[in-house]
Give the backbone structure.
Amino acid sequence: MFQVLHCQLLIWGFLPTQKPDEVVNVIKIIMLLTVLTLAPAILILMTSFTRIVVVFAFLRQALGTQQMPPNQLIVGLSLFLTFFIMSPAIIEINNNALQPYLKGTVLQEAAGESAMKPLRKFMFNQTRDSDLQLFLKLSRVEKPKTRMDVPSYVLIPAFVISELKTAFEIGFVIYLPFLIIDMVVASVLMAMGMMMVPPIIVSLPFKIMLFVLVDGWQLIVGSLVKSFG
């Protein structure tokens, strides 16, 4: 806390200094703190987390189990699956960016560029060309000759909407069998004249039984991991 306050006083000019390098180091610390505050957004929007958590939300809605599994469990499972899927990129960032920067062999700018390379590669592999073209057109930048020339501020939103579209497609496929069960149960109840009984009360045990019999968690998690190639 004292170091942060000291940095702010130096930047605002309340503490005079005769060392320009000290001011530069202070600015670097402030930039690092800013990056740390953006870490949750980076984790959510530049990794596989978005697709996973949206699919799990669709699954819970399709099952009709209200708050089971709870939000904390869904987010936690999504987080660890994200670490599992992103492990090659994380290892590459650690070897090529973080460790050289901590040893002082590369500068902060070079380390940042090295850290972005595996993330950009992952996002390009999951981004649809149509979504990328949309944001290139909206940004009004010069058409890039190669993928390396695509700015990150164009790539990231294109990646996010591609992930949302893919997640909704998977969610639709998950929803169909449970929707059929709801329709069959509703039709049977109506034919028996039990129109006052909510179909969800009767269909819920059948949906849970079907999900357990087909080993649904293994199928969905396996399909999600395989969908990232």
